[in-house]
């Protein structure tokens, strides 16, 4: 282990790569990240960083306090993997059959560990460091459950966290670039199940049946028009039917067909519109064909929205770390993130870290050959940490102004 006071960029980058590869070899899916949590805690404890453990079944918190009192800002990493069989052929590929860090959460975790190490180094040497940083190692992002577990733990409230900062690798963005934007960045996530009830019978005598497969086919087509003919071309939305199950034999019309799908949007008004129309269209079409439908609609995650002040701190921090020429306007996506839950309850910013080759050949998230550019680890640590410092300075100044005024 290298002492914090001796850390050079080369040393720290090497350590972060080693941590990331250790995590990559042993991926754990949501709510099962026991060894992952232990690895994180052991590494940070070795470097003298305070751990706040036992507040969740998996996942953990690290805490670095400056020499002077002040506000607290949180920096978050997600730590869970996916149930995917890795096909990268890397020497440090997953050793757990059927599980893989196919979304780069091992990268996120290592980067935030790097931020914690750098913060600890400054806390020990800088008498002017006021306030504290809480490093959140969140479980179960892929399940959409982890952010709520973090909030329910009470740790953010106990430390009176002022804002939350997080990042995600982006293989579509050239390696070394940072993407930041104000406002919506990632889509809301809703899911629906439509159970269509018809009347089964012999396939050769369809006139005595109410065919739920035919109803379902009409419904799939109709649902596609909700966006193309119901949502402004200047707005965004997706309604995708990803699963259509019906029947047991080629010559039998079944009683039931089941459609399952997802709904995404970057706008709450569009989100409400699509939910309402799915109900209306499903009930109307099924009734028109003589059938009926049971509808299950679950709102899972809100839009991930970046607050202007926090996004500006991230942008300024990124410019300081990688240069203005490498900071770009982040492209939006209708992929979802449970970081959105933090942005509902406090100022927050989620930004992209480019880890792609820049020629479109990089594999995307959740692909069995997905990989990240490890050379971006230390850069990411520094952007996260500098964003946290700028936030601390702002909130400390606010507190000082309030105290003077009182």
UniProtKB/TrEMBL annotation:
<dbReference type="Pfam" id="PF01546">
    <property type="entry name" value="Peptidase_M20"/>
</dbReference>
<feature type="binding site">
    <location>
        <position position="103"/>
    </location>
    <ligand>
        <name>Mn(2+)</name>
    </ligand>
</feature>
<keyword id="KW-0378">Hydrolase</keyword>
<dbReference type="GO" id="GO:0019877">
    <property type="term" value="P:diaminopimelate biosynthetic process"/>
</dbReference>
<dbReference type="InterPro" id="IPR011650">
    <property type="entry name" value="Peptidase_M20_dimer"/>
</dbReference>
<keyword id="KW-0464">Manganese</keyword>
<feature type="domain" description="Peptidase M20 dimerisation">
    <location>
        <begin position="191"/>
        <end position="286"/>
    </location>
</feature>
<feature type="binding site">
    <location>
        <position position="168"/>
    </location>
    <ligand>
        <name>Mn(2+)</name>
    </ligand>
</feature>
<dbReference type="InterPro" id="IPR002933">
    <property type="entry name" value="Peptidase_M20"/>
</dbReference>
<dbReference type="InterPro" id="IPR017439">
    <property type="entry name" value="Amidohydrolase"/>
</dbReference>
<dbReference type="GO" id="GO:0046872">
    <property type="term" value="F:metal ion binding"/>
</dbReference>
<keyword id="KW-0479">Metal-binding</keyword>
<dbReference type="GO" id="GO:0050118">
    <property type="term" value="F:N-acetyldiaminopimelate deacetylase activity"/>
</dbReference>
<protein>
    <submittedName>
        <fullName>Amidohydrolase</fullName>
    </submittedName>
</protein>
<dbReference type="Pfam" id="PF07687">
    <property type="entry name" value="M20_dimer"/>
</dbReference>
<feature type="binding site">
    <location>
        <position position="142"/>
    </location>
    <ligand>
        <name>Mn(2+)</name>
    </ligand>
</feature>
<dbReference type="InterPro" id="IPR036264">
    <property type="entry name" value="Bact_exopeptidase_dim_dom"/>
</dbReference>
<feature type="binding site">
    <location>
        <position position="105"/>
    </location>
    <ligand>
        <name>Mn(2+)</name>
    </ligand>
</feature>
<feature type="binding site">
    <location>
        <position position="366"/>
    </location>
    <ligand>
        <name>Mn(2+)</name>
    </ligand>
</feature>
